[in-house]
Amino acid sequence: MYNLFFNALEQMQLLSNLETEKQKLLQILLVGQPELKERLGP
Fold first, then answer.
1. Rounded to an integer, what distance in angstroms lies between the CA atom of residue 19 and that of residue 42?
2. What angle do CA 27, 29, 31 make, to 5 degrees?
3. Residue range 1-42, pLDDT digits in tens
4. The pTM of the whole model exceeds 0.85
5. How confident is the model at residue 28, as a pLDDT?
6. DSSP letters of 1-42?
7. Residue from 35, 42, 36 nearest 12 by CA
8. Residue 19: what pLDDT?
9. CA distances from 10 to 15, 17, 21 (A)
10. In Å, how far are 5, 11, 27, 29, 39 from 19, measured between CA atoms?
11. Paired strand residues for 38
């Protein structure tokens, strides 16, 4: 399950890189338990 978490984050990062010349095409807001901050690191 831990590996699945990081795979999902990696996919979200790739999606967030999609942009036009003027703007990003996708914005992602992560909301979760305090443990989420620990897993994402600094």
1. 25
2. 170
3. 567 778 888 898 899 899 999 998 988 887 777 777 777 776
4. no
5. 82
6. -HHHHHHHHHHHHHHHT-B-SSSBS--------HHHHHHH--
7. 36
8. 92
9. 9, 11, 23
10. 24, 15, 10, 17, 27
11. none
Q: Rounding to the nearest 10 degrees, give the CA dihedral for residues 3, 7, 13, 18.
A: 180
CA distance 26 to 12: 10
Burial track 5-36 (b if 16+ CB lie within 10 A, e otherwise)? eeeeeeeeeeeeeeeeeeeeeeeeeeeeeeee
